[in-house]
Amino acid sequence: MHTIINSIQSKASTRRSEMTPIECFRQPNYECQDQGDAMKLEVFVPGVSADGVDIEAHGPDLLITARKTHYIRVNWSTLHLEAAQRDYQLRLRLGLVFNYPAMRAEIHEGILSVTVPKRNAVARNPLLQRVA
Question: pTM (2 decimals)?
Answer without folding.
Answer: 0.66
